[in-house]
Amino acid sequence: MNNLRPVGIIGTGKYVPEKILTNSDLEKMVDTNDEWIVSRTGIKERHIAAPDQATSDLAYEAAIKALESAGMTGSDLDLIIVATITPDSSFPSTACILQDKLGAKGAAAFDLSAACSGFVYGLATATSFIQSGMYNNALVIGADCLSRITDYTDRNTCVLFGDGAGAVVVGEVPEGRGFKAFDLGAEGAGGSLLNIEGGGSRLPASAETIENKKHYIYMNGREVFKFAVRVMGTATIEVLRKAGMDRTDVDLFVPHQANVRIIQSAMQRLELPEEKVVVNVDKYANTSAASIPLALVEAAEEGRMKAGDTVLMVGFGGGLTWGASVLVW
Ligand SMILES: CC(C)(COP(=O)(O)OP(=O)(O)OC[C@H]1O[C@@H](n2cnc3c(N)ncnc32)[C@H](O)[C@@H]1OP(=O)(O)O)[C@@H](O)C(=O)NCCC(=O)NCCS
């Protein structure tokens, strides 16, 4: 990637809905307790979309802030990518809804489905388009309303998820800065470990699929945990190798926020000290595609990155998929 036009992040924004669902709220809904949730996951609370908010509404709030911080308006965009597994509806895409709301007339717009890895997949896609010269300014958003696909009678999953959106504007940056490498991958054979069976062309919505709860997230937690720990390590090492760097070059590690124990295992493997790692899973839980941008944007807002710092983002999720990137801020 070194001889190509340098492309990086030139604007950031985030949004979480107002309503907070705490562990003690969940204690009243299912057979669980704060001690179990905190010790097994690190999660204390999560934000939940209001009944009249859909994924595009969360994405819009984050997008407006990202455009503002880039000093742009919608009309400056020529590409919009929304990474999500909870689009407003099957089609039109959530990206097209946003294209209209943002006044990004004529911009290409599409959704990207790579679950919790979606934001990094989106960054890689936008970067490639801009490096090739096809587009100049792209809006990449990770947004999900997981509360809409969570079974709040299933304690195995309902404690884990939340809603939110994070957005970045991707464009040309000064020489030496920007994305240095990506490592994207998938293991489709593990697809049934984390999925929603109903509502697609294989098993369309019916009274029976609703009765059998086929429209909610199913997860084999233990197997997904093992996959997550494995690929967080391998993807991180691989993306650093591609960038010609090693773990000592990393100034800030921004992992997918699914479970603090998965993050800790990656920290140990990479021998990263706490101050170099962004953790906000305690406040937002797992927000799927929004998780990495929420962590990145929060770290930026807290002044945790300075120009020239090396930022490593890495995510994993349904598919199964993973995605990692090395970015010089
Ligand atoms: C889900 C997860 C937190 C469970 O933690 P764990 O330490 O593996 O726990 P186990 O699966 O061994 O379950 C232990 C027990 O706790 C119970 N339990 C599950 N959820 C519970 C809850 N919310 N409250 C109390 N007990 C719970 C289980 O029923 C099980 O009981 P059993 O042994 O009597 O069957 C963990 O597996 C995980 O984080 N997996 C990865 C999830 C993930 O990252 N998903 C998103 C990918 S993008």
Structure description:
- This protein is α/β, with parallel strands linked by helices and 329 residues long.
- It has two domains: 7-175, Peroxisomal Thiolase, Chain A, domain 1, CATH 3.40.47; 179-328, Peroxisomal Thiolase, Chain A, domain 1.
- 33% of the residues lie in helices and 24% in strands.
- It has eleven helices and 13 strands.
- It has a five-stranded mixed beta sheet, with helices on both faces. Strands 8-13-12-11 form a four-stranded mixed beta sheet, with helices on both faces. A two-stranded antiparallel ribbon has the order 2-3.
- Helix 3 packs across helix 4 (94-101) and helix 8 (221-243) packs parallel to helix 9 (260-270).
- The chain is globular, with a radius of gyration of 19 Å.
- The two termini are 16 Å apart.
- The mean pLDDT is 97.
- Coenzyme A binds at residues 32, 36-37, 40-41, 116, 155-156, 159, 194, 219, 221-222, 224-225, 228, 258-259, 286, 317.
- Coenzyme A is lined by residues 32, 36-37, 40-41, 116, 155-156, 159, 194, 219, 221-222, 224-225, 228, 258-259, 286, 317.
